[in-house]
Design brief:
Helix content is 52%, strand content 22%. By secondary structure, it is α+β, with helices and mostly antiparallel strands. The protein has a 4-stranded antiparallel β-sheet with strand order 5-4-6-7, with helices on one face. The protein starts with a helix and ends in a 5-residue tail after the last helix.
Length: 362
């Protein structure tokens, strides 16, 4: 029985993953159609076609490997003379088509966030409600009813912000801006215990936060702010990666993501099937936002790279040139493939080490 429920959760996770991919490509598809661009093919998956149907000169296909999808636009990769080609519409419209995939990721993330918020017993705040028995933060400045405004200059609009800012203070020292008795103040030197996790020391959050009763307004407000928080956290993580504060070895590829889903599923099933499903949906909020933000990076072969290559044409009226654009995209694509291989290698290595040494002793 446990195996069958576990399989059902995995099927659900697989369907949600493909929904995220479908939504991203649908963003490109619907805006291209709106601007009169011919869509040659709208595909879910990669590799050889499993089946296809043709409607209004567009091929809709399902492919062998469920690891992505694509929306092939007329003239996107060549100098098509068709009146319905991608190159015939204005630059700003092409930019919108490129950005629409990431926008749809945000929309899907918001829908998932609302589902998760509605399922909660209450809406989390950033107001301290209590401390654990071994808490050191209460002895170094924090008190019950303190409303946390920022931690180490990182604004905390939601509980997720609080957990991220406190959990990534790797020396265990926090400068916490709070509102106490209607007065704004900064408490310097608030401390948290450090614990070992995945080959590094991280802060142990030793305080809890109040929740408030749900209503329509705060459900929507929290869901929106949750998306804003995930966008900020994703961007912050990318900046840290560039600055070297986070190692490339911390990256997770498809195997690592599947491993995380498996871990979430196992923990959720300890409570029940519904908890496992909600755990997967909650994880997918972060995943779809990450996909959207990553695709907007100004890197060749990504949507953000394509938008960047349209900028010279927007400014001067002269396109970059298909040959140059093609070379840049090929180089970018190869680098992305290498990055995916490196991430997969890290994922496999992490799984093997966890199996032999345990997750906290790598």
């Amino acid at each position: 029985m446990f195996l069958s429920i576990n399989v059902l959760v995995w099927i659900f996770a697989f369907l949600i993953f493909n929904l995220i991919v479908l939504a991203h490509e649908f963003g490109h598809y619907i805006t291209a159609k709106k601007f009169g661009v011919k869509v040659n093919e709208f595909a879910l998956g990669m590799g050889p076609k499993l089946f296809k149907i043709v409607r209004e000169n567009t091929v809709y296909s399902m492919r062998c490997f469920p690891i992505g999808g694509f929306c092939e636009l007329e003239g996107e990769e060549n100098d098509s003379e068709s009146e319905n080609s991608f190159g015939k519409i204005s630059v700003w419209k092409r930019m919108i088509v490129m950005a629409a995939g990431a926008f749809m990721n945000i929309v899907v993330g918001l829908i998932f966030s609302i589902i998760c918020t509605v399922s909660r017993q209450g809406i989390p705040t950033t107001v301290v409600s209590g401390f654990s028995d071994s808490a050191v933060s209460v002895r170094t400045g924090l008190k019950v009813n303190d409303e946390i405004i920022s931690i180490n200059n990182f604004k905390t609009h939601t509980d997720q912000d609080v957990l991220f800012a406190a959990g990534t203070a790797y020396d265990g020292n926090l400068d916490v801006e709070i509102i106490r008795n209607e007065k704004r103040m900064i408490i310097k030197g608030v401390k948290l215990n450090l614990i070992q996790h995945n080959n590094r020391k991280v802060c142990e959050i030793d305080f809890s936060l109040f929740g408030v009763k749900k209503n329509f307004v705060n459900v929507i407000n929290y869901s929106v702010m949750n998306i804003v928080s995930f966008v900020r956290l994703t961007w912050k993580s990318i900046v840290w990666l560039i600055k070297g504060k986070v190692s490339l070895r911390d990256m997770a590829g498809p195997i690592g993501i599947a491993s995380q889903i498996g871990s979430i599923t196992s923990k959720g099933l300890e409570k029940g099937f519904a908890d496992a499903i909600l755990g997967v949906v909650s994880f997918m909020v972060m995943f779809t936002i990450s996909i959207g933000i990553f695709n907007l990076l100004p890197f060749p072969a990504l949507d953000g790279g394509r938008i960047l290559m349209l900028t010279p044409e927007l400014i001067s009226g002269k396109p970059l040139g298909k040959k140059i654009e093609y070379i840049i995209n090929i180089v970018g694509f190869c680098l992305l493939i290498l990055l995916m291989i490196f991430a997969a290698y890290n994922d496999i290595l992490r799984i093997i080490k966890n199996a032999f040494y345990g997750p906290d002793e790598i």
